[in-house]
Amino acid sequence: MQPLPPFKLAPYFQTRIWGADNLEPWFQHHAAPDEPVGEVWLTGANCTVATGPLSGQNFAAAVKEHASAILGAAFATEAEYPLLVKVLFPREKLSVQVHPDDALAQQKGEPRGKSECWYALEAQPGAKVALGLAPGATEDSVRAAIANSTLEDLLGWLPLATGDLVYVDAGTVHAIWPGSVILEVLQTSDTTYRLYDYGRPRELHIDLSLEAMRLTTGAGRVTRTPGRRGETVLVDEQYFRVERWEGDAAGLSAAAAAEGGPQLLFAAAGTLRVEGEFEPFTLGRCELAVIPAAASRWEARGEAEVMRIVPQGAPESAASLLEGALS
Ligand SMILES: [Zn+2]
């Protein structure tokens, strides 16, 4: 297989009614009037390859065309990148929502469910998220609370501080409230069921929500652990591992290159220069690089705070399960 150099993706700015007009200092992007940006997609179908031989290509098309080089053998059947990475700018409350797990999503004809995690790049005093149901809540009490517009009273909630990581497995009722800037890593899926939207005119999916919702889940703040190579492991769950590397990037690139497999590098602060026998590029704040599974030799230099994001959980990939079900 022809090795592919690591490459940088250009972000996609997604308008959301709960979003922000001004994304500084994270992004130099000004939203159009009445089109607040809620999500900046750093991977995903609408991103564009910004460096290297695939430069200018749509990321989804690039992954499809070079699936085995970018994703590696374990994920090659997926035909799309298994993880989405976004930066969220909630200036108003997001809807109270839930996502299906793989099994339920596939019953509904979707390739995979959606487990996600949130890393607080910044959290102002008082920032919090709604996570799971309060003890004693039942499906009936949730349904009644939706009807009475009192669902917020049935939610558990978690204060959020800068540097916190919150794991949100599929089936967890959740919402993000204002006051933070969040790096979100999630399974590539579009499936969100809304239980409650504060009277905004968007569609609700109450029956589907109750089908997907679980009364107790594995969601919560994750205790970070020291890794073996100087990194901090922020989360290591079924579908993703997220590590934080700080300081000189040499250790990061040596460890990442030795491990191989598909991975993403997100620069949270500082500057990272990625070089090898290809057009070198620089990752600044909130920029993301794709390291293909079959990457040509590369190394990183610079002083930076970098999140290394690794897709996991390939063996019974959604695509192969789906193919199995259809054949
Ligand atoms: Zn969600």
Written account of the structure:
The chain is α+β, with helices and mostly antiparallel strands. The protein contains 7 helices and 23 strands. The chain has helices at 59-65, 67-71, 102-107, 139-147, 206-212, 250-259, 318-326, and strands at residues 7-10, 12-20, 37-41, 48-49, 83-88, 96-98, 116-123, 128-133, 155-159, 165-168, 174-176, 180-187, 193-196, 220-221, 225-226, 232-236, 240-248, 263-270, 272-276, 278-283, 288-291, 298-301, 303-311. It has 2 domains: 7-222, Sandwich (Jelly Rolls); 225-311, Sandwich (Jelly Rolls), CATH 2.60.120.10. Bound molecules: zinc ion. Zinc ion binds at residues 97, 99, 116, 174, 192.
Distance between the termini: 29 Å
The structural domain count equals 2
Rg, Å, rounded = 20 Å
Largest sheet strand order: 4-1-21-18-23-17-16-15
Order of helices and strands: EEEEHHEEHEEHEEEEEHEEEEHEEEEEEH
Count up the helices: 7
Oligomerization:
single chain
Q: Ligands in the structure?
A: zinc ion
Tell me the CATH superfamily of the largest domain: Jelly Rolls
Number of strands: 23
What percentage of amino acids are in beta strands?
35-45%
Largest beta sheet, briefly? 8 strands, antiparallel
Helix/strand-derived category reads alpha+beta
Q: Which range best describes the helical content: under 10%, 10-25%, 25-40%, 40-55%, 55-70% or over 70%?
A: 10-25%
CATH topology of the largest domain: Jelly Rolls
The dominant shape is globular
Tell me what the CATH architecture of the largest domain is.
Sandwich
By CATH reckoning, the class of the largest domain would read: Mainly Beta
Mean pLDDT: 93
